[in-house]
Structure formats: C-alpha cells, structure tokens
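Quarterly update from the structural biology core.
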Amino acid sequence: MNHEAPILNDAFGISWLDFNLANVLMIIVSSLIVFIFCVWASRKLQMKPTGFQNFMEWLVEFVKGIVNDTMDWKTGKVFLPLGLTLLLYIFVSNMLGVITNGVVGHDLWWKSPTADATLTLTLSAMVIVLTHFYGIKINGTKNYFKTYVSPMPVMLPFKIIEEFTNTLTLGLRLFGNVYAGEVLLALLVSLIASGGLGLIGVIPMVAWQAFSTFIGAIQAYVFVMLTMVYMSHKVSSDH
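Predicted structure, tokenized:
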C-alpha cells in the first residue's frame, strides 16, 4: 500500500509555498534527540569518563580524526563542531525510519527525514555554502576567487559545474541509500502483515534492519568525510 506524506499547501497564504508536515515533525524529533543526548552526555563531566561521556569523547576523537585526514588541525579545528553535529544528526535521522514507520490513516508521519531529497539537498547546499564562506574568510576574497581560474582561466566553467555536482552528489547519495532502505523495509512489513511470508518473514526483516543500521552509519560517515574534503579544498592551499 502506498502512503503519502501529509502536505500543508499554501503555507502562510503563499500559493507556491508547501510544507511536508512529516518532514517538519521528524526534523524536530531528530533535533531533540541529538540535543538531549549531547546535554545528557556532557552534564556531569569527569576526569575519568564513563557511560555517555565516554561515548561522546570517542565521537569527538572520531570526528577529529576525519578532520586530521583532510587538512591540518590548526586550520581544521574550527570545523570539529560542524562535523560532530552532522554525524550525530544524520545518523539519528537515518535510524528513525529503520526502527519503524508510523502511518495515520493514509498519511506517513513517522519516517527518516533523510529519506526525502529536499532535506538531504538542503544539507548538502548548506555545506557547499559554508565551504565558500570559510574559503573567503580564511584566504581572502581575491585569493579565493583566483583558485577558480587556476592553473588557467579555461578552468572556470568546469569549477562552477563542479560546485553544482558536489551539491547534487552529496545530497542524493544520502537520500538514495536511506530511501531505498525504507522502501524495502516497508515491503517486508507489508508481506508479513498480509501473511505472504508468515512468521519466517521476521528473519529477513530483522536482517535488513541490521543492514540498514550499518548503511545509515556509513552514510553519516561518508557525508561528514566529504564535507571535510570539500572544506579542505576551499581553506587549504596544500590539498
């Protein structure tokens, strides 16, 4: 059975402005989960970390390693909060649709917000805009725009096209993997509910959930890694 997302049309009286209410809900849920986890993990800091604090410190070191792999730490340390936020937010968003899908009537309310290309392309566009911002801030406007005609002016159109392709590939890669996982999971659930697979269908469903969890983690890592790669191309002279 196909379920459609609830849409708010003509928002704020603007004829062309529509909101996907499920996306709005799940963006809020994802943000709250990440916020509560970070506050909980850092509320009682100790010299010998345990529990959530230990896990949070591991995450910080993990993201620090990603930054160090793409640029020198002196330049890249400012991007640690960005990488950590993206890693946690994207991973949590990917997992929400793996746990379950929530349908009210014929409207799909509970799902992964990253299973919508609008959100993933917005994230990728935000990343690309930030790379330009920090590129100009660190290198200066004149030196930054010189890179677009280096080593020769004929490179300008190719480098402009590259900015658009980076945005599309970064966002669509995340969307495609998460959306495909949710579609197959929904199909397995439908077959089990209809009796097509019987109880034995639980086995492939659980296996696919485990695999989707792995894919969700990998895609969060890939998104952060590519973010830092694109950032290093703008802020480092030795990339």
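The chain has one domain: 7-235.
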